[in-house]
Amino acid sequence: MQDLEQIDTSFFSAEREAELDVVGTTVPRVDARAHVTGKTQFYEDVSFPGMLHLKMARSTRHHALLKKVDTSAAAKVPGFVRALTHKDVPNNWYTILRLIGVEPNDEPVLPEDRVLFAGEQIVAILAETAEAAGEAAAKVKIDYKDLPAVFDVEEALKPGTPAIKPHGKNHFVYEGHHCRRIRFGDVDKAFAQADHVIEHRYQSAPIEHAPTETTGCIVKPEGDGRFTIHSNTQACYFTLDNAALIVGLPFNKLRVKGGTVGGGFGGKVDVIVEPIAILAAMLTQRPVKYAYSREEEMQVSSPRAAERIYIKDGIMKDGRIIARKVTLYVDAGAYSRHSPYGTTKAAAHMPGPYSIPNVWVDAHCVYTNRTPSSAMRGFGVTIGDFALESQMDRIARLLKMDPIELRMLNAYRDGDMKAHRKKAEGCALVEVMQKAAEMTGRNLPERFRKMSSLNKEGV
Amino acid sequence: MAKLKGHGIAAVNYPTGMNLGGDPSQALIHATTTGSFVITLSSVDLGQGLKTVMAQIGAETLGVPVGTVWVDTADTDTGPHCMGTFASRGTHRIGNAIIMAAKEARSVMLDVAAEELEVDPADLLTDGKGNVHVKGSPEKSVAVINVALAAHFKYGKTISGRGIFMKPKSDVVPETGEMNPDSAQAHACTVAEVEVDDETGEVAVLKLTNAYEIGRAMNPAMAHQQIVGGAWMGMSHALYETTEPYYPDRAHGPLDFSEYLMPGPGDIAVMESAIIERPAANGPYGAKGIGEMTANSPIAAIANAIFDACGVRVDSMPITPEKVLRGLDALKNAAE
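Predict the joint structure of the above. Result:
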């Protein structure tokens, strides 16, 4: 355990409080023994007599009109109980972030006349067993009329590309703007003064959260008219509030019981399984379970968004970066979910942990005909860091500078104004590089060893 | 036919919390008559150890042993509101709420202890071992369990406290992007050492050296576990993972873990990690969030190490053997 407790207190020693009693010590994880002996209770460990299983008939098309939905063959499967369509959902349109004022409601719980991505849920099937529900869902017959699909973020924004969303645009609208903007200084003027100007394009593909435990819930109607939702949500009240609004019940008719989650990573903050399972329990007055299969978790639940990022930098021979222009596209897929917020977070993160006097950012939240993306660990930042830090390596090589020294020269320090006009405090970028250099046996020149996030010495 | 070694570095910052809509969490604490305290929340433990860290913060403020503090959480009927476990907010938001609640409960506990010991409450200390005693006179003490029993059966008082932490809503100025979205910034630097097989295009990550600054590590071993787990995720993101291997084409999406590739036990890099501490003025005992950031610096560090090893700059994730080989071919063709 020695390596697991390595804290180097030689940095910022003047700012550290006296030793505390239990905070800052390695207390064994309270639930570790239960986890490794199989005693921890997860949501799926509860089960109730008469519990129904919910499986979805899903779109096989990327973008299509729903001409006819026929559940007659599904209804003949032994164990079939009932089907639910959009007509059964009291308030079908929502967007998860409406709880913090984000508009418009852009996602139907169950689609009405069209589907926007392959895998979109269309008809919910309730049956006595999971197998029967799966078999019946496969027998739901859906007639489609295919529509042109858009898969590329830049193509989606081109004039003339058909709008796939009801608000008539293939992007989220930020207070009248087509993207989230950062405007700080004058990048064009700085590019004209720079010794070098370089621009590169970075791209990622969607990534799965890959939790051990797939997303799911069990909803139980209680004797007093309330519903208990056993869920692995990462946010009990986000789930409760959104679900109540969708099913049209007062908030206090719902009770969410969460617990230990078998891996979240941001994949369990969307509110997808609970509302329809609550509705199914309301309509049947029986407990209902809706759990994603591994295939659904991988292809239907929201992944980390693919991002495309263009970074253009104006650089001086001495290593100072004097301008950074970032054009960023978040592939939100078919629906907003948490992406409008993640895109703002991506914009706020630019230009990375560096003090650059001229910064221009256009961060677009773009809709395409793919599985909606949403939150994932490092939301809005992880892919940006790949782009930023690849770009920093390129600059170091262009100038034939050491990559640590280049970063230290440009690192933000206490009191610097960041591009989103928040004054930096508590900075420590210089120090983590000094520590990493020390750990890898790299002897920094004295000028860089003496640098500090507290002041501009050596810059 | 060679294995080419290279080094790469990346340095990052990461925000604690993201509060554009306003970001509150509450905590309640009460003493039981069994000598324990219960912290009641509706926050979710994702396996990162939230329950353990919250018990530590509660115990620190109350001045009682951590083994006598229980965390009862994730039930919306019994626990007060929490926005949820995301945005690296849990330790910071909920920890601050617990400190506020624990201060109130501690104050009542000391008032009752003062009555029992017939002294002024300002003269009392907790020993962190389950006793309250007079400053400078450890022998003049009363056990916490006896304080709790006296409060309930003798004085008719509840030893309890209410806490909330809220970062107010921050609207964004649409023209400039001016905003105040986070509460602190944590920092990390990773140095990656890789080996590229120029025949197969495969990349082996030999070592990841990580230095973190996270305000104050509430539980050093658990903070290191976040670093190790996140570095593995970073390796996996850098080299293996995607649900759409031919993005933006949607074909050939993996459906299970035999198709969705991730590093196995034989692929894991040697890791050495250290933490430095610059306490955040607004953090509970100085803590910043470490939950999300740990996958970030390894990705670019690996990408930069690949370039250092073989001269191939791959600008798209994941950096598959195919992309490396195509890059090597392009270098060869350019040289010819």
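The CA atoms of residues 219 and 229 of chain A lie 4 Å apart.
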